[in-house]
């Protein structure tokens, strides 16, 4: 059973929704609606003995009334009636069941007893269980949105499992906002049967998955990080965001997903041994997903910094050193090259301070010099493709005509530089490809602008240097892990 192929779960030809409802306030209605809105490529069979149709789809009284086989069954009924439904699915020959229903081990002793009964019955038939207490699954290839909330993720190379459904679906939503696409997602819930190791092993074998994300609250003491997890880490980065790191959080985790948080120090050690990378914030999880799915890894930890203003260069250099990244001095040959481009009062060092140069052409030329330097492994580009300035205007204040005309001219000048900005972005992507070095932008802009940089040009950018450095540190750590295993 442990090696049963999860392809059927994530690529089912048909799904039975047991507990489908015509009541829009019920999960049995909302899940069906999400599946239909997502344009699922397979067949969906609602199960409800009191309804003929729901949302225009034919209903069946029981799963055994469905003609033909069923790949996956989703159960949304009350917990107490789940055990006999497992038997019905077993007799039908259903290989996978997603138990959305809660009120199992997360609620205490009686719930845990009922959960063990459900798993035992499923095991008798060779059925694998997702959950219980799960928000469902998402899979890009069959466009399957078998989820409780109305989330429609972008498609891409990131796969995730989450012991918290809320955290997981929020990551799908953030991914949409930031241009990060997902291949597969599962809310693993209480992990009464299928657990975190099963999902990591499967994602590791999945050719469409490039980066693996995980939200963990705890691990069953009987589950060990297998050697196979370390093998997955050699092929694909696995990022873990751990909930329940404190005493208060650990108690909350036990009541939420039935997980025992465990001792944080031991957990961290287990992650390192398995080659998994821990992040400390939910935002960092998304930042790593974005960067690792679009950029090559740096060969080492030597960083070049290019900035339009000195202060941000100082802040970035500090952040690099505090995270064990090296900012090497520029050799004389590079200084001579920059002397021909920049004003005579430029910084003459790394960070390369362009001393507030406005035009985009020198920026790209300066960046190319850094990218071709063998003395660094990655670049932080601060101030690339800036969108210009906005001038505040109070309609209650009458401004002189000369001032209004001047501001209008400035705005026209900024607008005329859009093509320059586009050329700069295209040039940065070209340098990433030709040099094999990650070039991470730090740029003023909205979430939409950072998303457009990624979707239109394949460029990773962040609004602060600290976030960029944090991701670059993870890239260097992962490369170090890979080098240690060669």
Overview of the molecule:
The model has no long low-confidence stretch (mean pLDDT 89). Helix 2 links the parallel strand 1 and strand 2 (43-47). The chain is of the alpha/beta class and 486 residues long. It is 42% helix and 16% strand. It has helices at 7-10, 27-37, 82-92, 109-125, 165-178, 196-205, 227-235, 247-257, 264-274, 282-292, 310-322, 332-339, 361-371, 401-416, 418-435, 447-457, 465-484, and strands at 14-18, 43-47, 53-54, 57-58, 72-75, 96-99, 128-130, 136-139, 144-147, 155-162, 182-187, 211-216, 238-242, 277-279, 303-307, 352-353, 378-382, 439-442, 461-462. It has a 7-stranded mixed β-sheet with strand order 9-8-11-10-12-13-14, sandwiched between helices. Strands 2-1-5-6-7 form a 5-stranded parallel β-sheet, sandwiched between helices. The protein is built from 17 helices and 19 strands. It folds into 3 domains: 1-138, Rossmann fold; 153-293, Rossmann fold (3-Layer(aba) Sandwich), CATH 3.40.50.261; 303-484, Succinyl-CoA synthetase domains (Rossmann fold, 3-Layer(aba) Sandwich), CATH 3.40.50.261. It is elongated.
* CATH architectural type of the largest domain: 3-Layer(aba) Sandwich
How many distinct beta strands? 19
Report the sheet with the most strands, covering strand number, pairing sense and barrel closure. Answer: 7 strands, mixed
- Whole-angstrom Rg: 26 Å
Number of individual domains = 3
Report the CATH superfamily of the largest domain.
Answer: Succinyl-CoA synthetase domains
Low-confidence stretches: none
Q: How large is the share of residues in beta strands?
A: 15-25%
Structural category is alpha/beta
- The largest beta-sheet arranges its strands as 9-8-11-10-12-13-14
The number of helical runs is: 17
Helix % is: 40-55%
Distance between the termini: 32 Å
What CATH calls the topology of the largest domain is Rossmann fold
Shape annotation: elongated
The overall pLDDT average reads: 89
CATH class bucket of the largest domain: Alpha Beta
């Amino acid at each position: 059973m442990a090696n049963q192929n999860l392809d059927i779960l994530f690529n089912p030809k048909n799904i039975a929704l047991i507990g489908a409802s015509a009541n829009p306030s019920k999960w049995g209605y909302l899940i069906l609606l999400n599946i239909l809105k997502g344009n699922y490529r397979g067949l969906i069979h609602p199960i409800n003995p009191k309804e003929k149709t729901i949302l225009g789809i034919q209903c069946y009284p029981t799963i055994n009334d469905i003609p033909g086989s069923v790949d996956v069954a989703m159960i949304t009924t009350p917990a107490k009636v789940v055990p006999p439904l497992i038997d019905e699915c077993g007799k039908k020959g259903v290989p996978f069941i997603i138990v959305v229903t809660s009120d199992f081990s997360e609620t205490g002793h009686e719930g845990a007893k009922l959960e063990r009964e459900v798993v035992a019955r499923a095991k008798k038939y060779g059925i694998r269980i997702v959950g219980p207490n799960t928000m469902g699954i998402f899979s890009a290839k069959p466009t399957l949105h078998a989820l409780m909330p109305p989330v429609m993720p972008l498609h891409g190379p990131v796969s995730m499992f989450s012991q918290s459904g809320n955290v997981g679906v929020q990551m799908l939503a953030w991914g949409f906002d930031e241009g990060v696409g997902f291949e597969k997602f599962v809310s693993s819930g209480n992990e009464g049967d299928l657990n975190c190791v099963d999902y990591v092993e499967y994602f590791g074998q999945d050719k469409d998955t490039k980066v693996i994300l995980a939200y963990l609250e705890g691990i069953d003491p009987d589950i060990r990080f297998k050697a196979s997890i370390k093998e997955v880490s050699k092929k694909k980065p696995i990022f873990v965001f751990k909930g329940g790191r404190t005493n208060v959080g650990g108690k909350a985790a036990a009541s939420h997903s039935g997980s025992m948080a465990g001792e944080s120090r031991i957990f961290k050690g287990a992650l390192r041994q398995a080659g998994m990378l821990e992040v400390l914030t939910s935002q960092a999880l998304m930042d790593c997903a974005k960067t690792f799915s679009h950029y090559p890894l740096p060969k080492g930890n030597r960083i070049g910094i290019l900035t339009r203003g000195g202060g941000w260069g100082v802040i970035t250099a500090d952040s690099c050193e505090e995270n064990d990244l090296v900012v090497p001095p520029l050799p004389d040959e590079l200084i001579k090259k920059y002397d021909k481009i920049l004003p005579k009062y430029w910084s003459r060092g790394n960070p390369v301070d362009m001393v507030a140069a406005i035009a985009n052409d020198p920026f790209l030329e300066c960046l190319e010099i850094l990218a071709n330097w063998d003395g660094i492994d990655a670049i932080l580009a601060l101030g690339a493709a800036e969108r210009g300035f906005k001038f505040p205007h109070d309609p209650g204040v009458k401004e002189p005509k000369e001032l209004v005309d001047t501001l209008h001219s400035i705005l026209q000048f900024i607008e005329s530089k859009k093509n320059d900005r586009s050329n700069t972005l295209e040039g940065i992507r070209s340098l990433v490809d030709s040099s094999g070095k990650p070039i991470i932008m730090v740029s003023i802009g909205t979430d939409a602008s950072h998303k457009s940089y990624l979707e239109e040009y394949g460029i990773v950018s962040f609004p602060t240097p600290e976030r960029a450095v944090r991701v670059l540190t993870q890239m260097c750590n992962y490369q170090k892990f890979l080098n240690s295993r060669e």
